[in-house]
Amino acid sequence: MRDLGFEYDSSIFPVKHDRYGYFAAPRFPFHIPINNDGDKIIEFPLSTVRILGSNIPVAGGAYLRLFPYWFIKKGIKSINSQGKPAIIYFHPWEIDPSQPRQKIKRLARIRHYGNLILAESKLKRLLKDFHFGPVKEVLGIGE
């Protein structure tokens, strides 16, 4: 990735999940060495809050759609109160409640289609309640 000019990445989700996640990863931005010359890339993990010894996602995607807004807001405030940045993501299809529906198993259907109708309004509320900026600015890298 570094050879392609990438300075940062946000691929790690420090959670336990049946399809993805790396629970042991740090919850906040950290450096990953990529060679023996001291080159590194900054990893900006997707945001979680610690509850009863577990990392609970508040970053976006299905979590933004399925969890109540007050929980997402409280999670981001908790992260920010520790002097840490939160990262939020969404997939473009998540703000299209009229997208075509596929016949899929129940759990996949909930993960993919659950609360699509609420996603756009939650994103708008986040934009009103918090200040967001480009990752490079938040991490203080680049020009």
Descriptive account of the structure:
It is a single chain. By secondary structure, the chain is an alpha+beta fold. Helices cover about 30% and strands about 15% of the residues. It has helices at about 60-65, 70-80, 105-115, 115-130, 135-140, and strands at about 10, 30-35, 40-45, 50, 55. The strands form two sheets. Strands 1-3-2 form a three-stranded mixed β-sheet, with no helix packed on it. A hairpin with a 6-residue loop joins strand 2 (about 30-35) and strand 3 (about 40-45). The longest helix has 14 residues, at about 115-130. The radius of gyration is 16 Å and the shape is globular. The model has no long low-confidence stretch (mean pLDDT about 90).
What are the key terms here?
two-stranded antiparallel ribbon; 3-stranded mixed sheet; 5 helices; alpha+beta; 143 residues; 5 strands; single chain
